[in-house]
Amino acid sequence: MMPNHSEASDRRAVPGRTACLEHARSLLIVSFCLILAAVGGCFPALKGGGGSTGDPVLAVVDGKAITAEDFRYSLQIAHRREDLSSAGELSLSEYVQKLIDDTLIIEEARRMGLDRSPEVRKAVDAFILRESVVKLYADEVSGKVSVSDDDVMNYYKKNYESFTLGIIETDSKEEAEEVLKQLDEGADFRDLARKYSTSGTGSNGGDIVLRRGSMPPHMGEAVAALDPGGVSDVIMAGGKYYVVKLYGRTEAPEGELPGIRRQVEKAVRKQKEKIRADEYLEVLRRRSSIKVDRELLSAIATGKDDEDAGKWAESEDVVAEVDGSVLTAGEFVTMAETYKGRPKEYVLNSWIDRKVVDHEALRRNYLNDPDFKKRVERYEDQLLKRTFIDKVIVPRIKVTEEILREYYSEHLKEFSKPDRFRIQQITVGSLDEAREISESLNDGADFSWLARKRSTDGAGPKGGDAGWLVLEELPGPARRMVLEMEPGEISPVFEVGSSYRIIRLLAKAEGEPMRFEDVRDAVLKAYFRDELKRRMDLVVSKLREDARIEVYWEAVRSIEKEIGKR
């Protein structure tokens, strides 16, 4: 039985936030990155907005229009790139047919009520939240940050200033303090570095040249405060202890800035966004009603090794509340397990920061924005297509051992080892020499003798015998040749890098089928892929029979011309 604790309310300010300042700062950025990485999540921005006035209609399926913007969007998703240069290689007319097929499937899913299923609604709501956080970050953080030339120059001068240092690294604070004591008594820094330093620079007296930006922040600050000849106090970094001596400093060379300007601008923007994100999180916290039961928080046991943690995992007692959203003790224990031993305050503040951001993002009602709403609709469409496949098509696919063995027998070539080719080769450095050797071979010269005498590659001493090779091991030009050659035939001269080569095909060996037991997983994947496509084609064919479809080919051809010019 979990103990009941009276709720102690802490409004607006929550102690212990220093421990998770960096996490709080990065919360919005992390949320932003998560959505970009999500499969079927945040899609590339589209120019002009889908379905806007004047957007050409390419086809109509049962009254639902497929526009030019839908077409461009689909191509961008397929190519995962902003430019569509490679799309010109596609049959765009066929691609329009694919969009029609997708539309038929999506609308069928809606008719079946799949759009109202709990898992779909939950996924769509989660997408709306994540996209709202992305938009909030753009509005309140990245959109409010600018980087000036002065910002770039100041950052460059500070972080690309270099220092000539002596560094003594020790494993304990006591050793580092002993070093300082001996330095105060007049000992030579380099002698002490050779005696005490555990780093690789100890053998040369600890001498090293470092940029300020490459040092841990607290070490960089300590070094920057030194005058030439000065020695730092003990500095702790990464579990080690350091004593640093400054021999000299060199200003950042202005001539190098143009070559790394974009890198510096990116670093400055990241730094300024960090500051802005910190400030904005503080604003959101002040606006929010935050309650924390600190007595309960103190009592909760966390960690896999704690015997009481398992008991707390089922508790519904409320640890914290943010504007109506609650965190139970059980949820807190689960969160704590993912934070690898972080302090309770860190875990708590992580949840609070996430909730104040989520609430503000949803409060903005970004769904009122037409472009935002269109992104959500497109996400839901893709989700419905996947759901239809999972719930309607996949359950119809029958898989038995007998079926897999039959598929294996019918597609034996796909599950065979690759064909092999035994070749001889002669490689030389010039085209004229290669042509001369080719003429000699055509006149009946012995290939092996010429390879030993003239070839510059590793097979030369063996008469050019390169052994048995699979197609992928041959240079590009030779792959097509060996497929067309018969054993005993000699190829024309071809170029390989900066050399020239002639090959002779000695023998061919077809790849032997691999045992079913060894390739069963590959057979299952291949069969499932083919069967899924076959059944999808059947469903789409049936849907097309009952659908009213009209394609505006003139509009399609105009899109083809547009993409063809890119």
Helix and strand arrangement:
Blueprint (H helix, E strand, L loop, with lengths): L20 H17 L19 E5 L2 E4 H12 L12 H20 L6 H23 L8 H11 L2 E9 L2 H12 L4 H8 L10 E5 L5 H8 L10 E3 L2 E11 L6 H31 L2 E3 L1 H6 L9 H4 L5 E5 L2 E4 H10 L5 H20 L6 H24 L7 H10 L9 E9 L2 H12 L4 H8 L10 E6 L5 H9 L9 E3 L2 E11 L6 H30 L3 E3 L1 H12 L2
Antiparallel strand pairs: 1-2, 1-14, 3-4, 3-6, 5-6, 7-8, 8-9, 10-11, 10-13, 12-13
Helix pairs in contact: 1-4, 1-9, 1-13, 3-14, 3-19, 4-13, 4-14, 5-9, 15-19
Characteristics:
14% strand, four-stranded antiparallel sheet, extended, alpha+beta, Chitinase A, domain 3, 566 residues
Structure summary:
The chain has 566 residues and is of the alpha+beta class.
Number of strands: 14
CA-CA gap between termini? 69 Å
Largest sheet: 4 strands, antiparallel
* Structural category: alpha+beta
CATH architecture of the domain at 417-509: Roll
Query: Averaging pLDDT over every residue, what do you get?
Result: 86
Q: Share of helix among residues?
A: 40-55%
CATH topology of the domain at 417-509: Chitinase A, domain 3
Structural account:
With 566 residues, the chain is α+β, with helices and mostly antiparallel strands. The chain has 20 helices and 14 strands. The chain has helices at 21-37, 68-79, 92-111, 118-140, 149-159, 173-184, 189-196, 217-224, 257-287, 294-299, 309-312, 329-338, 344-363, 370-393, 401-410, 431-442, 447-454, 476-484, 516-545, 553-564, and strands at residues 57-61, 64-67, 162-170, 207-211, 235-237, 240-250, 290-292, 318-322, 325-328, 420-428, 465-470, 494-496, 499-509, 549-551. A hairpin with a 2-residue loop joins β1 (57-61) and β2 (64-67).
